[in-house]
Amino acid sequence: MGLGKTVQASVALALLLGRQSEINRALIIAPASLTMNWMDELSVWAPSVAVRHVQGSVDDRKAFYLLPVPVLVCSYEQIRSDSLEYIPSDSFDLVVLDEAQRIKNRNSATSLACRILPRKRAWALSATPLENDEEDIASILSFLDPSIKQYISRTHLSKKLESRMLRRRKSEVRAELPPVILQDIRLDLPVSQREEYEKLWETRNRLIGTDASTSGTSTALLGLITRLKVICNFSREAGISSKLDALNGIIEEAGSSARILVFSQFVETLRWISDRITLPFDLLIGEMSDGQRRTAMDRFRNGSTPRLLLVSLRAGGVGLNLGEATHVVVFDRWWNPAVEIQAIYRAHRFDRDEPLHVIRFLVASSIEERIATILDRKEGLFDEIIESVETTAHRFTKSELMQILDITPKDVLSFPQKE
Fold first, then answer.
1. Given this model, what pLDDT does residue 47 score?
2. DSSP calls for 334-388
3. Smaller CB count within 10 Å for the chain: N or C?
4. Orientation angle between helical segments 35-45 and 5-17, nearest 10 degrees
5. Per-residue pLDDT tens for 178-216?
6. How confident is the prediction for the chain on average, in pLDDT?
7. Among residues 11, 6, 30, which one has the least CA distance to residue 101?
8. Is 397 exposed, middle or buried (0-12, 13-18, 19+ CB in 10 A)?
9. DSSP state, residue 67
């Protein structure tokens, strides 16, 4: 993260379109929240290239695909709708996927739409190409090389990557970049919050159901875990939170010049925090428009300090540059550490002069500790295939969800029927 994938792609694109004249048209596909960021970066790093942002109705988008514009920027959602019917077979010499892990599920409509796009060249940009397992990489490789039709062995996968992957590490590119200072803070729940947590924990048998073999059981398990995680963040009944108390302590110690990013996977948590802090702040969540997101980020970068930006992990975990942050607080741990790492490194950019302080909260004797334990045991896959960063991501199986809840298969089968 933060090593200039967008810059590299923009400059390379300008070279291919310009004096080398190797391509005539290119399509850049990015998450909807990042399309305007691509327009901005291209204007800086490829100013000679004519670029248009695909938007509007179906007819408007069809016109964009037909016009002789050298570079088009569009979203994955648009391609999912337009790829098969509205894009002519000879449209693009190059297709670029930003945040290419979006096509990690080979069977998804988005992945299929990207793979059937006509193209002579293909680039896939990602800081976390492996989020769950080897099939993530295989799916991205099948976009780059259509001859890869199905899952291939781990050894073959690594060999395929060797000839197709250009990788940059911070240690190689800029060794003097200030360090990330990571601090894990274990917290106890105050009495009222603990009582609310234990009340839900003790009723988990009744909430699960009877059939451990059905997919519905996994849904129930995950739903219960999510509810327990939210209680670890704050108590609705008592209106208290040990994590908020810890956050207030960090704010006090950070000083008058602090710009603090606070990440949570739960929008309701961010809204709850926003009602209880006195510092100037902005929200950055998925339901916001591009204009609202830009305004929030601009206020965080340039507004008076101290200041907070409360960010949804899904909305702000990829593609944003928030190097002005002095601190990052991970209010609750994400299921997928790769997403968490992406979020943290939104603030660890080349223009930093000071270390980045990252604080992660973890509630002791809770569901959070159980999840962290399983994730720790699953490290290594990214290292083996990509040769990696700090950790790997993992998709929880049903048995692991049951382990998190301290439930055995026998327990599930013996639960009473729901009323």
1. 92
2. -S-HHHHHHHHTTS--TT--SPEEEEEEEETTSHHHHHHHHHHHTTTHHHHHT--
3. C
4. 60
5. 778 888 888 888 889 999 999 999 877 765 554 444 445
6. 80
7. 30
8. exposed
9. S
